[in-house]
Amino acid sequence: QQIQFLCILSLVRATLCQNLYCMYYSALPLVINTWNFENAANAAWSALQKGGSVLDAVERGCSQCELEQCDGSVGFGGSPDERGETTLDAMLMNGDTMEVGAVADLRRVKNAVGVARAVMEHTEHTFIVGESATIFAENMGFMSEDLSTNKSIAIFSQWLQQNCQPNYRKNVFPDPSKSCGPYKPKAKLWKPKNPKGNFDPSSHDTIGMIAIGKNGQVAAATSTNGATHKIPGRVGDSPVAGAGAYADSTAGGAAATGDGDIMMRFLPSFLAVDLMRNGAQPTVACKMAISRIKKYYPNFFGAIICANTTGGYGAACNKRPGFSQFPFMVVNPQTNQSQLQKVDCF
């Protein structure tokens, strides 16, 4: 009778899910993160196995990426801005309490996601930015140190030698496609016939992570050093709740990666979680969140991961030249170690 019940249950789940990830439908706890950041997933899983909370797990996982400078786009020594400085953005969200801690344009402090948690736990605020975020971090006991490396200095020097190409300026003079600033606004606005498409999938790999506990508790976190050659002070989607990530223990979690200047306008992580709240399976929720952006920006670079409170998960990405598959990491009791998975973009 037990075997018969399990067979019927498997058939029901297969009918309900109708996606590639049904085999993991009810495996909790769960850790899932963007890109092939294996050590980050293992660090988060280890935190859970040692009795840590889901918030501990996502902080530990993102901190691991900060230490390893994952793909040069997380942590110190990567993505120098127009002044050659590396600055950091990060956030955490507690899906039980809906508390958020976030920092952006953080300077001279390596552990951005740790500072974000300090914002959550030691202030009544949600978001602290710029030099004030650094002062706050120092007051909380974080070490101040140079975030530049030989690599980031070389990237910046080469960019200057190439007349500051590429950059994120428009409708200014001198012509930003040919020279460096300082820039002033043009009296007459214009739109280039062929948008520059500054975001390169191979060099912009923000980590977004979701952890779901054995009882359905949800937390999410992100960490990044942003877009290479960004205008100083620019903040993308990563530290913005609902854009870079979102967590709600009544529904699930989501985290996004890609062209944050576009993606943050649509709050894709919030949308995906809300869709799951209303019954959508994770893969479907991810695809719908991407489709909403794609309607307005068909060639944008972006992807999203989603997970619900029963352990179901999925991912989706927008297909564009050079980006046809999106890799992500998963750990749950059935894998018991980080497992690389990929989804075809659409």
**Major beta-sheet overview:** 8 strands, mixed
Radius of gyration: 20 Å
Integer count of domains: 1
Termini Cα gap:
43 Å
Look at the helices and sheets and give the structural class.
Answer: alpha+beta
CATH topology: Glutamine Phosphoribosylpyrophosphate, subunit 1, domain 1
Q: What percentage of residues falls in helices of 4 or more residues?
A: 25-40%
CATH architecture type: 4-Layer Sandwich
Shape: globular
CATH class: Alpha Beta
CATH superfamily: (Glycosyl)asparaginase
**Amount of beta strand:** 15-25%
Counting DSSP H or I runs of 4 or more residues, the number of helices is 9
Query: What is the strand arrangement across the widest sheet?
Result: 4-3-2-8-7-1-13-14
3D architecture notes:
This protein has 346 residues and is of the alpha+beta class. It is built from 9 helices and 14 strands. The chain is 30% helix and 22% strand. Helix 2 (38-49) packs antiparallel against helix 3. The protein is globular, with a radius of gyration of 20 Å. It has a single domain (30-150, 197-344), classed as (Glycosyl)asparaginase (Glutamine Phosphoribosylpyrophosphate, subunit 1, domain 1, 4-Layer Sandwich). An 8-stranded mixed β-sheet has the order 4-3-2-8-7-1-13-14. Strands 9-10-11-12 form a 4-stranded antiparallel β-sheet, with helices on one face. Mean pLDDT is 91; it is low at 2-24.
